[in-house]
């Protein structure tokens, strides 16, 4: 006999019979695949951000607007570019979890970004980090 119910965090109950006819109930807490993926992406983007911060702290101005268990928002600025990375799960946005936007300080205030990346449903962690690195190369140029 088994029972499961939920949308995000799942609880699965299984009744198992041991030798001798004794019954036990086993409880499994299953995470939704989307939650697990988001947590992995958040963790890897956080590692990337802090690696950039330590590796380029003498040439870039790096600041954290928010870093907690639910999201990461950070700024990576140079003499020529300002940029922001957002890793967040909720809200309406044209990306799944990760956005990285870069503006050129020498351009008009109403300019379009010189670089914009937003992950999609099929983006892997490797795809995301590769695109963050593409943007970083622009900020460092």
**What strand order characterises the main sheet?**
4-5-6-7-8
**SS-based class:** alpha+beta
Q: Major sheet: size, sense and barrel closure? A: 5 strands, antiparallel
Determine the fraction of residues in helical runs and give it as a percent range.
25-40%
What is the average of the pLDDT values?
83
Distance between the termini: 61 Å
How much of the sequence is in beta strands?
35-45%
Low-confidence stretches: 1-12
Annotation, overall tally of beta strands: 8
In sequence order, what are the helices and strands, one letter per element? Answer: EEEHEEEEEH
Give the count of helical stretches.
2
Mass-distribution shape: elongated
* Rg from Cα: 21 Å
Which helices and strands appear, and what pairs or packs with what?
Elements: E1 2-5, E2 9-17, E3 23-31, H1 33-55, E4 61-67, E5 71-77, E6 81-88, E7 98-104, E8 115-118, H2 125-140
Antiparallel strand pairs: 1-2, 2-3, 4-5, 5-6, 6-7, 7-8
Description of the structure:
With 141 residues, the chain is an alpha+beta fold. The chain has helices spanning 33-55, 125-140, and strands spanning 2-5, 9-17, 23-31, 61-67, 71-77, 81-88, 98-104, 115-118. The strands form two sheets. It has a five-stranded antiparallel β-sheet, covered by helices on one side. A three-stranded antiparallel β-sheet has the order 1-2-3. Helix 1 (33-55) runs parallel beside helix 2. The protein is elongated.
